[in-house]
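Reminder to self: keep the SMILES exactly as supplied, no canonicalising. Ligand is zinc ion.
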Amino acid sequence: MQATPAEIDALLRLQQIDLDILQQNKQLNELPQRKVIVEARKKRETIANKYDQVRTLEKDAKRKLVRIDDEDASLAKKEHGVQAAINAAQGDYRNIEARSKELAGIEKRRFNLKETRATVQAEANKIGALKAQIELALEELEAEERKASEEFREIGGVLKNEIAALTKERDEVAETIDDELMTTYTKTSARTGGVAVGVLEGSRCGVCRAPIEGGRLIDLKAKAPIGPCPACKRLLVIRPEGE
Ligand SMILES: [Zn+2]
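Structure tokens returned for the bound complex:
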């Protein structure tokens, strides 16, 4: 295949740039912060669901406490009224007896309410503690995600800049290479996962290391300065003898 020494140099440089770009992209895709961010988001979602449940429980408990307090307040008022009626009854024993029974009933109900309230309050306290725990965990996850995002932006930014600079250089180098050679290079590169060009080292392919013998070596050398490896079909640069 025809190529000037400058084109051969450009091709080898192009190969190096492409491998560098590949490597930088790989680094960018495999930045550990990416995984940290994804994991933190997943965890946050799970915890956020739990948080919603706990908040519903908290609301229920608060509502129950308000109901109990309302009932108790109304019972206290009633109790006060009945007590006043007893005080006013003066000697009307039947009335006093009936009122006293009513009073005892109210007291009993208030006592039971007090017990229920204590139970509900203990439950509410537990829920409150759980809520605080979840809030703390959410804060920690948010901080973790924020830190990883910042690092990702910073390190990723450096990598992206490097890739942009390499891409610019690549375009300039590619400009200097013959179209047909470029097409062959591009196709070979796609087929071989990125390493399209090697150098013939003695009688071996510099990439796949296959020995190239006899007539095949003579055929290849006839294609100098560049020809395909008979084994892997990569482009092999054939240096003039003695170089
Ligand atoms: Zn080869």
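Points to follow up:
The two ends are 19 Å apart (CA to CA).
The first strand starts at residue 197 and ends at 201.
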